[in-house]
Amino acid sequence: MAISPDYLQELSQRTDIIELVSGYVQLRRRGRTYTGLCPFHSEKTPSFVVYPENSSFYCFGCGAGGDAITFVKKINNLDYIEAVRFLASRAGMPMPDERDDAGKIKRRILEMNKDAARFFAAQLNTEEGRHARGYLRGRALLDTTIRRFGLGYAPDGYHATSDHLRKLGYTEEELLTGGIIKRGQRGGTYDFFHDRVIFPIIDLRGNVIAFGGRRMGEEGGPKYLNSGDTPVFKKSRNMFALNFAKKSKSRRYILCEGYMDAIALHQAGFDTAVAPLGTAFTPEQARLLSNYAEELVLSYDSDEAGQKATRRAIDILSNEPMKVSILTVQGAKDPDEFIKKYGADRFRMLLDGCSNAIEYELSRAKAKYDLTKPDGQVGYLKDAIEILSGEVTPTERDVYAGRVAEETNVEKKSVLTQLDARVRAKGRRARRAREEALLNEGAAAQIKVPYTQGGRKALGVAFAEQQLMAAAIKEPGMLEKIAARVDPDRFITQEMAQVFRLLLEKQAAGESIELSQLSGQLPESTLSLLSRILAQNYDVGFTQRDVELYLERIEESVPKSVAAAEMSGDELEDYLQRLRERRR
Fold it and tell me: Can you identify the CATH homologous superfamily of domain 444-583?
């Protein structure tokens, strides 16, 4: 689907990229730019930069870059047309009336999910749904909570839901694509959810994107069933109840094990409780939460599975800027049961007194050994040093070294000496890894030159090509001079040749050559590369002399005999004149 350049230009003018990005990233002004922690990869030092003057962004850590449309595509997992539609709705602009097959499918699935959620909610209040109502009330959920979360009931049988949706006009293909039905081994179809309590999964924009279903008895398949990935849903990139939590004033979020735990905490007044979606906690979910939370409390069950999940989450969160705390629930198997027994105020006291990740790891290590015996003390000391030599501040090391010294009857000075040696050893390994990585970084690594074009010897030419394209975009008047001296077919890097051709097409059509006009017509990798080049030249003002030098670098890379053979008489005279001038 093609969208007119005039429409994209107006959309770009109506979109404040700082305001847009600030909805997902905490930005700080740095002169003419804004910086923050990149939402697309884990980092603790900001390398993500937004450039308001040309409405672009670039991350110097992971290489993600582009315009406002690219940002919306990546942050919300949308395709190009959906991202344009998102920004258009935000700017109060109607979409142009053009075909959009992929977007149409997604819109139909979202409409179907909304109708399915209404059907499930209605079924909860029928005679057939009484045992589902009994289950929810047995979990002490209030009617207001049930309505707020849109809880429902999928009727028993294998066709009730799909029959209802077919009557509303949805096709079998749409039901299959959206995960409402599955195809059996004999070729027939059946409802994926039946005789289960239903939990709608809602995204940050309020769309019903998937469902979770819980059985109510001891039999009937897995305890929980969850929608698979669809065109509108990716399990690893969404969180249950985040649509409610993001509205809270609190920046302390609670990560629960399941839907019911999160709902019970919301009902008790803890409105930042969230849960994964039927899978283990993922790095994508950690990055998503870091956009909203300053502290994340891990509130998993105390059984072995819950503790394993806690340790995995700690590892994932070690690269995120959030403070990580671990909740220890005593006298109950989970937060829901604790609140029912002791009340919300006692649970709030637990939250305020929960331990941090270091204390949690040390306590687990300590529990493995008998500290009344020398070998137990040595084993615990070895584990403690390994823990404290990780992602720990110097102050934390000093404090916990004192505690470990007391627990093992070893002088603190000795603990600190061993700890310092271990930190240095890890530091040497990290430095070697960084040095190796640096060999693959910098300008040379970013320029991919085909071996047939001279490999590393041609890096200077490739750099000149990049600089010329940056000059053409920043100073459109330069494009005519560049095109008069060099042809895209002469470029040795395919990405810049593609950019060059696109700029010439735009110029010939009398269209703008701003980044927002290019994003829909370039591969994401090329757009990211172009964004990096523009970011590196953000404060550079290109002059005619700059362009001349880059052009000469490219021209001199072509063998003179080959170049001369392809020139007309006038071109050859001009070329020889330039050579004479350079010699003088």
Answer: DNAb Helicase; Chain A (1.10.860.10)
